[in-house]
Amino acid sequence: MSKKVLYTLEFPVRCSPTILYEFLSTPSGLQEWFADKVDERDGVFSFNWNGSDEKAEMLDSELDKFVRYRWMHSPKDEYFEFRIERTEISNQTILIVKDFAEKKEIKDQSQLWEYQVKDLFHRIGS
C-alpha cells in the first residue's frame, strides 16, 4: 500500500474570514457546499452523500483562522484542513485546503476539491 502525502491547494476568495469560517466549521455551512446532509454531535461530524455516510472528528480549530478534521477511518496522522489567511499587501482572503492522498491520486483529488470549492464560492457569492 502506498503512503499518502500531504498536498495543499490555495483559492483566493472575495469574502470575509468570518463568513467563510461559518461555511467551513458548522454543519449548516458545510451542508451548503460540502455534503448533502451534515450533522454534528460531540465534535464528530456526519457527512452524507447520496445515502453514503462518512464520519469525521474536528481535531482543532481557531475562530476565523482554520478548522482541521480527520476521517474516522483514516490513520491518526492524516487529516483535511481549511485555513483562512489574508495577504499582507492586498488584504485578500485566501482559502487554503490541505489534504492527504496517494501521489498518483493528487491530481484527481485536487480536481474534486476545486469543484467543491467552486460550489462554496457560488454559495457565498464570491
Automatic annotation (TrEMBL):
Q: START-like domain spans which residues?
A: 1-125
- Entries under Gene3D superfamilies matching the protein: 3.30.530.20
From the UniProt annotation, give the residues forming the signal peptide.
Answer: none
Q: Which Pfam families match?
A: START_2 (PF19569)
**Membrane-spanning intervals of the chain:** none
Q: What is this protein called?
A: START-like domain-containing protein
Q: Which organism is it from?
A: Lacibacter cauensis
